[in-house]
């Protein structure tokens, strides 16, 4: 045996090779089997298609009528010959006549089939149309097409055998007729029941049905609340009652179900967000209690989602005025249903900010804030205010502000001012303004750092300490301060983006007062980089003349809020804003209830009291003189606020007491018509207005005037009471507001002279004093007016 024998010897294949070839064979077999199944199924489908095509062709083919031929004379001769050839020799005459008549009746057997001539010569006229109708060709009846339902295949030795069964096709006409018949029966039954019942019986029937529905709702709700995990499926039953079809009680039942479901969800929803399970979590085996909890959470989330979709659809139907097919609810009732649905959505927005689909609820509510229906708009705005006030972390506030910003931009700033006023409720007090100088976070040491800097025992202790710190961080329930500041910073950036867009692109919009008010509130949180540009924009708005008096006051207030915060380091003297306020103070409305007084008093507080170090004495004196002049012609509530502001100025700038002296100091004459407070020489005048205000008909005005004439002392005989001295000017104005001022005449007899006839919000005039005023107005005599002003109607204060 040499080398040739070695070449002829076959090499045994390895196990891997055998395994590889067997796998290939199996794959090829599987492919061949699948190909055979596909080809057989393809052939079967092709045959079925041909069969259906043939049936449709036959059904659509119109049959041609048979050709009609007239009877030829030759045929008549043959018939006569046949009758003559009959053997009549061996028959009686009666039999012969009977046979002839029978032959005549059965002549269709002997005649040509193609002949369509009538057998009987005599026919009635009424039978002719019936004969024509019967001779018309008839169409073939269509065979019903049957669909095939493919079932699971059966595996045999030969392979997979596909299984199918015929599905009977119900004609569409019958399907359509069935519900129509039911509807018609219902419609027919209602008119029959209507006239037969009196109105009283109909009312009793409705009350009975409504009570049954109420009991059903109550039983389902109480069962769910008693054991939510076991009765979670009853939520579906309760939600199904939202589709109530009984026209008598449909609207009431749907409203009750909406509110009941809302309260149920508020009670059974957990205090955490439910996330969907991953595939790996679904595949793992868990305990029975864990599986029950998973099923409860899954059912709760799905039913909550369907409930929100039903509420949204109710609102959409009202907006689109879309009539449902069942017609259980009329179009007039859609508004009431939609209002209840909106209230439920708003309650869920406020009550469940941590649960699933909260962002979807925000997207539903924000467009309704700008709804033309005032009730709907107020409900949604109030819900958003509550949400922003109670949101301590800032997650819900950020989502809300993002959606509001998108809506304002998409509608080209054509929204209600109330939408932007809700942003004033944001709880933002601190933001991350200096990101670069932020202190670094406490990070855990790496293994390499521990090895180089710590000994073995220290590393062991450090490891235990870090483990404990991690556990404490995980166990901590409250949100970290860093996360809160980060969310607040992002929220405030979006708010300022809304405000700056409106200042830049919509300066004549009705949103401008809301924007300026918002800037005034959050101005101390604005970045220093925007200060110069923002002040320039605000002053440009003031001098443009397009703003109302209140809007210009908001501009001034915003500017000084900016400068009172971080703006202190800029060392800017906004003289132009002081001059504008000084110039426009006397334009404050004198005859009616005035809300602008609150903004004026806020401006004075920010401009003079809080910036006392940057304000000169001449400026403070000029404003004090101008406010005293203003107090003469405004209503008592505004006058009290103005005099309280003068008292604050006198305490802030003690040298202003020179205005209580008649002697002139320095050169020059007081120029009240000059618009610049620095150069109007206020030190050369006196507060003579206080003498007139000391005789004012309002007791609090008299008290303040007498207090200021004595130099506004904090103690002694000229000091104010504790109630008045502790109140700010704005608070005093609101306390003595005369918006609801009414005249209350005495019940019987003249009023006592020892009592002052004034209460907060209600004014009463002495009848004798009223008579003197009328006489003074009629005579227009200066002497009469002087006599009136000099005669007090109440005892003078000591």
TrEMBL record:
Residues 552-705 form the CCAAT-binding factor domain. Residues 65-74 have a biased composition (Basic and acidic residues). Keywords: Coiled coil, Nucleus. Residues 454-483 form a coiled coil. Pfam families: CBF (PF03914), NOC3p (PF07540). Residues 172-192 have a biased composition (Acidic residues). Residues 213-307 form the Nucleolar complex-associated protein 3 N-terminal domain. One of its GO terms (cellular component) is nucleolus. Residues 1-91, 163-201 are annotated as: Disordered. GO terms for molecular function: chromatin binding. It is found in: Nucleus, Nucleolus. Transmembrane segments: none annotated. Residues 1-19, 42-52 have a biased composition (Basic residues). This is Nucleolar complex protein 3 homolog. It comes from Culter alburnus.
């Amino acid at each position: 045996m040499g080398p040739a024998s070695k070449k002829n010897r076959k090499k045994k294949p390895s196990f891997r090779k055998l395994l590889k070839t067997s796998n290939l064979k199996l794959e090829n077999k599987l492919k061949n089997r699948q190909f055979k199944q596909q080809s057989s199924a393809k052939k079967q489908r092709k045959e079925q298609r041909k069969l259906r095509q043939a049936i449709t062709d036959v059904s659509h083919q119109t049959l041609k009528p048979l050709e009609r031929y007239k009877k030829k004379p030759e045929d008549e001769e043959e018939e006569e010959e046949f009758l003559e050839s009959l053997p009549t020799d061996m028959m009686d005459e009666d039999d012969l006549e009977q046979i002839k008549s029978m032959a005549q009746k059965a002549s269709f057997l002997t005649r040509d089939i193609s002949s369509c001539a009538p057998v009987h010569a005599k026919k009635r006229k009424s039978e002719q149309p019936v004969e024509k109708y019967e001779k018309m060709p008839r169409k073939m009846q269509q065979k019903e097409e049957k669909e095939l339902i493919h079932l699971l295949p059966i595996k045999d030795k030969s392979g997979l055998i596909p299984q199918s069964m015929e599905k009977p096709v119900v004609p569409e006409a019958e399907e359509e007729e069935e519900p129509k018949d039911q509807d018609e029966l219902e419609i027919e039954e209602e008119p029959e029941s209507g006239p037969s019942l009196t109105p009283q019986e109909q009312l009793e029937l409705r009350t009975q049905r409504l009570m049954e529905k109420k009991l059903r709702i109550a039983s389902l709700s109480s069962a769910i609340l008693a054991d939510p995990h076991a009765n979670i499926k009853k939520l579906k039953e309760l939600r199904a009652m939202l589709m109530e079809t009984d026209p008598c009680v449909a609207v009431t039942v749907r409203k009750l179900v909406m509110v009941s479901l809302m309260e149920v969800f508020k009670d059974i929803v957990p205090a955490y967000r439910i996330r969907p399970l991953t595939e790996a979590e679904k595949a793992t085996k868990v305990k029975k209690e864990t599986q029950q909890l998973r099923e409860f959470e899954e059912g709760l989330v799905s039913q909550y989602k369907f409930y929100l979709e039903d509420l949204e659809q109710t609102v959409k139907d009202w907006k689109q005025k879309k009539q449902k097919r069942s017609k259980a609810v009329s179009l007039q009732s859609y508004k009431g249903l939609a209002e209840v649905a909106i209230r439920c959505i708003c309650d869920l927005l406020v009550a469940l900010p941590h649960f699933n689909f909260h962002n979807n609820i925000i997207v539903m509510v924000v467009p309704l804030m700008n709804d033309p229906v005032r009730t709907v708009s107020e409900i949604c705005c109030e819900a958003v205010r509550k949400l922003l006030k109670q949101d301590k972390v800032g997650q819900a506030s950020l989502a809300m502000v993002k959606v509001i910003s998108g809506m304002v931009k998409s509608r080209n700033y054509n929204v209600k001012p109330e939408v932007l006023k809700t942003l004033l409720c944001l709880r933002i007090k601190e933001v991350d303004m200096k990101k670069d100088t932020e202190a670094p976070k406490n990070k855990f040491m790496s293994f390499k750092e521990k090895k180089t800097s710590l000994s073995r025992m220290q590393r062991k202790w450090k490891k235990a300490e870090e483990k404990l710190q991690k556990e404490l961080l995980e166990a901590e329930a409250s949100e970290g301060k860093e996360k809160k500041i980060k969310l607040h910073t992002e929220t405030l950036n979006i708010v300022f983006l809304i405000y700056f867009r409106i200042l830049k692109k919509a300066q004549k919009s009705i949103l401008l007062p809301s924007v300026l008010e918002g800037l005034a509130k959050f101005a101390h949180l604005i970045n220093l980089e925007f200060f110069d540009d923002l002040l320039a924009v605000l002053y440009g708005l003031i001098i443009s003349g397009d703003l109302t008096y209140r809007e210009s006051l908001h501009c001034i207030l915003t500017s000084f809020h900016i400068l009172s915060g971080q703006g202190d380091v800029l060392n800017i003297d906004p003289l132009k804003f002081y001059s504008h306020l000084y110039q426009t103070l006397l334009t404050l409305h004198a005859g009616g209830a005035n809300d602008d007084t609150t903004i004026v008093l806020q401006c004075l507080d920010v401009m003079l009291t809080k910036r006392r170090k940057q304000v000169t004495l001449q400026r403070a004196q000029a404003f004090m003189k101008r406010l005293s002049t203003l107090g003469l012609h405004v209503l008592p509530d505004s006058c009290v606020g103005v005099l309280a502001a003068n008292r604050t100025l006198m305490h802030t700038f003690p040298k202003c007491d020179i205005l209580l002296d008649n002697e002139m100091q320095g050169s020059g004459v007081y120029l009240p018509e000059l618009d610049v407070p620095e150069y109007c020489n206020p030190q050369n005048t006196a507060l003579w207005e206080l003498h007139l205000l000391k005789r004012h008909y309002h007791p609090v005005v008299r008290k303040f005037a007498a207090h200021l004439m004595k130099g506004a002392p904090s103690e002694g005989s000229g000091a104010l009471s504790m109630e008045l001295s502790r109140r700010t000017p704005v608070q005093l104005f609101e306390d003595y507001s005369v918006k609801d001022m009414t005249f209350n005449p005495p019940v019987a007899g003249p009023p006592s002279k020892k009592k002052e006839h004034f209460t907060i919000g209600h004014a009463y005039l002495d009848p004798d004093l009223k008579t003197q005023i009328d006489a003074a107005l009629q005579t227009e005599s200066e002497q009469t007016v002087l006599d009136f002003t000099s005669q007090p109607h109440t005892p003078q204060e000591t």
